[in-house]
Amino acid sequence: MVKDEETDLDVVKKIIRKSKLISDTNWMYARQECGIHEQVSNHNNIVKLYDHGENDTEFHMHMEYCDKANSLTDKVRERLTPVGNNQKLLSYAEDILQGLNHVHHAGVIHADIKLENILKQSAEVEEEYDMAKVCDFGLSGKFNPADGKLNMERVGTMGYMAPELGKGAVDTSIDMFSFGVVLYEMSTAYKPTAVKNFKYGSGPIPFRNVDWRKRNKHLQDLIEQCMHMDPSERINAADAL
Length: 241
Hints:
The chain is built from 7 helices and 10 strands.
C-alpha cells in the first residue's frame, strides 16, 4: 500500500521484479500486463490501473485499492461458506459479467478468472451490495479480430481452466468456463470437481440437492451454459447478462 503523490489516495503498488523473469514468455506477459490492464481499466467492474512504468530492476503498477479485496476468497475458500443470499450472489455475478463483457469487447481474453481475482469494494450507498471487480491481467492476451482466436499456452489456475487450453487457439469462451466454476463455487463453497467421481467431461455438472434446493433453477442453467465442454456451445458474457 502506498499513497498516490498527486491525489493522496491509498493505492496498491504491484511490483514485478525483472530478476524473477526467467524466460522470454515471462517477459512478454509482464510487458503485456501493463498495456492490457491500462486498456480495459476504464470500467467500474475492473480494478483501476492509475499508472505504470519500469526501471532497470522492475515493472510497477499503481492500482485501485479495494477495501474488502479478499473477502470473497476468505468466505468461500477459507471459511467454506457459500454466498447464501441469492440477490447478493446475483449482484456479484452481474458485476463479474459486466467486467468480462467489457474486457471481451476490448479484444482481450483474461485467461485467469478465479475466485482470488475477484476483489470486493464497499458500496458507496448503504442499501446497495458491495461491488465485485475483476483484477490481475498477468496472463491475458489480445485475440485476433479476424477470428476472435488467440494461440495460448496451457496457462491459468488448476480447477478453473477450460479443458481445451493447451490444445490450440482459444477464444473468450475460456473465461466463461472459468466464470461458471466461480459461480458454482460461490454457490456451494466447493468446485464441481470436489463431488466424488466427477471430472470435467465425465458427465453433467453435478448439483447435489442438499446444496441447491434453495437456489433458482436458472442459476444451474447458467452454470451449465458456461461450462459446456464444447467451447462453441458456451454462452457469452453479453448473453449471460
